[in-house]
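Regression report. Comparing outputs from two consecutive submissions.

Submission 1:
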Amino acid sequence: MTETKNPDFTLNLAWKGGLRFDGESGETRLVMDGDNAAGPSPVRAAAFALAGCMAIDVVDVIVKGRFNVRSLTCDMDVHRAESVPRKIVAVDLRFKVEGDIPGDRVARAIELSREKYCSVWHSMNPAIAFQTSFTVTQ
């Protein structure tokens, strides 16, 4: 018998017409739009999540190393497959860090994020257990 674990979080999407969905998870609200009009598409949202996850990790590691980060920005180029499924096939994430921080510390923070901490990057693994189900009402 397998023990069922409570989920770490839940979310709900509600279709609002066209390719737009309003989402909520706890107190968080989000609009996703396959047309990129009312909000990001799901793939664009995933790219935002990846960049955000790594940026948060990088700031956290640098600050925990007792360095003062005055600012941090990142730019990401995302390349997608030409045919369906148009998955992300390449990412170029560039950080701009301002502060009195040795370059090797920034490089190490990025490496730690990618190799150990960034849960979004590690969640992009196709080996994730993924189940679907449905109900139809009339």
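Submission 2:
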Amino acid sequence: MNKMTETTTIKMLEQGRVKFAYDCAKEGNKIQASKEYKAYSKKMLALIKTNGLGATLAFIMTKSEDDENKKGYAYKLLYNQTKEWLKRDTKKLIELNENEDLVEKIISLDSSLYRAVTNEVITLFKWISRFADGLK
């Protein structure tokens, strides 16, 4: 791959991630717990850096609630959005089926792939938190 093709590919990957993050933030802004969504999207970055991706996803999974009127729904949405991004990601770092458990998949990765997926999710949440913070 030549330098120009490589640059174009990287730009397209980043644009896809940014668009997805913007759509996630818009969705989070529409829910009853939009303030929590904004706060939790920022919190995710710190949790991942402190505890690791697997532990963070396990934590938000336990805090998730199905009831859209509860604060835990924001965690559920963030968990589902993370899973959806990893399924759509054009780099295909991991293969995820619809009914596969994200936490189980993440903790079973070898260390180099685990780091790559962690970096991808961190990058995604940097964008989600920026957009969530900017949307009113």
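Expected: both submissions complete independently.
Actual: both completed, but the second showed a warning that disappeared on reload.
Relevant detail on submission 2: The mean pLDDT is 90.
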